[in-house]
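Supplementary material to the annual report.
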Amino acid sequence: MELTQLTEAIKTGNRKAAGLLTQEAIDAGVEPKAILNSLIEGMDDIGARFQKNEVFVPEMLIAARAMKESMVILEPLLVAAGIRPEFTALIGTVQGDLHDIGKNLVAMMWKGANFNVIDLGTNVPPERFVAAAREHNPQIIGLSALLTTTMPSMKSTIDELKAAGLSNAKIVIGGAPITQAFANQIGADAFAPDAASAVEVARKLVGSQSTAVLA
Amino acid sequence: MTDRERFNATMHYQPVDRCPICDFGFWEETVPEWHKQGLPTEVEWTSTAKIHTDQWFGMDSYAATNSPDVGLNPTFEWKVIEDLDDHEIVQQGDGVRVLRKKYMGSIPHHIGHLLTDRDSWREHYLPRLDPTNPARFPADWEKRVADWKDPNRKVPASAWCGSLFGWLRDWMGLENVVLVPYDDPAWFEEMVTTLADCTIGALTVALETGAQFDSGSMWEDMCYSGGPLLGPDHFKRFLVPHYRRITDLLHKYGIDIVWTDCDGKIDSLLPLWLDAGINCMFPIEVGTWGGDPIAYRKQYGKDLRLIGGFDKHVLQHSKPAILAEIERLVPLVEDGGFIPLPDHRVPPDVPYENYLYYIREVRRIWGQDTNLKPCPALEAATV
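Predicted assembly:
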């Protein structure tokens, strides 16, 4: 069975079609990981078009919603087959900052790229990042901030992660006031200017350059 | 020239004695922080201040608005739902429940929305958007009308035209509202139409009195640092026709300057706003995504007026950096159709001394030390 229609359903955010086509593919005996890769391909396409300003936040949201519809059906099969995301990412908005839209978009896109995402929420103190990093052993830690006044919390979080000996995890920062220069200044491993770029950045940091993370 | 004469001349590229000297305001924490750095405590950025910051810093006015209420009326009861030490959960006047820090002016975090579907729209919001509600025209209506009609009024008055998307985004939450055009386009259309109807209905009553407004103004905040929160296709389909209804009304009554307040990267929506009759953008954020009022003028010519465009982040840095940012905007000041001011509210990490320096230099460079308002801040300054 061709999975191009399923990829297209993700690209266009057609959640009803995504669910139906996922079930059809399963019924036709398509390998779960092949189905998953077709979903990721759709999300990658949306991410690339988002970066080129061809689509915008709503289109990313409906694509992610369609993928979620598929994953509800697909996930039990992936679990049964022992197929797990290869990489884990922690994400949170740093201490003092209650904003979550940007953080949610990044989490959504990382999930769409088949990262296991642990979302710590907003106003997350450094010690919670440290504790969660110890518990989940992530390859990526994402720090978000909307306010210039909470940018220093990014530095204190990075300092505490490094002091705790957790420097194996790569730290990606982002948010409206954040720049590459600031990322360099506070010792982050990377800066992601938007949610789609965050996928590229994370893949690069973990050494996975393509969508075929399960291949 | 009065503030009003200067505003109108600036916006119509006519000769002016000098550029208007205006500000956007401050974070709530900024003025208390400056009190620790030498700003007299009686100076505040509140309507009840003994000395208002505008007076202290010698600011001109560009947009006094006391036109009819075109939003939710009555508003929801503002109340604290839960006290959480340094935070609190509050129901705002727009019905949204937010978690916010106490004593801080930072943007609160939305945690609950009353507006979730057609039923909640009809129950909670639609009844509050009746343009004929007498409460929209308050007890001092006659005085307001007299002010609007006064040919000798010294300050510019702006006809407040509300919001077609920003309010819906607040009332529903971003992740919910942007899905409605896909899931239930007829309902989205109904909500936008209702908002436009409310503005047009209430504003027409004011305009029919013979009120002389100098501009119309809206608020949207529908872009982030990378682009719009609603794609241009949906913007064009759902919003542009209703912006045009509003601007047509304003034009009919001789108001030809219409500005909208939209943070974030506005590039892909800007031509559509212009096409809809909104011909002035505010605040042109430089620091967060690289907005550039000079580039906009090159691209759109004098059809586009601009307010803002000074990178507020520079105010935290050195005096030479502040001076360079002021001088960067001089060609546009000379070109007209531009009121320079910080591209958002001044944050508390800006030293008071730097802000005083900024004020001194903008008065000298943009204001050419001509016909300026008294500036007690500089008279009191020792730096």
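Chain A has two domains: 4-80, 87-206.
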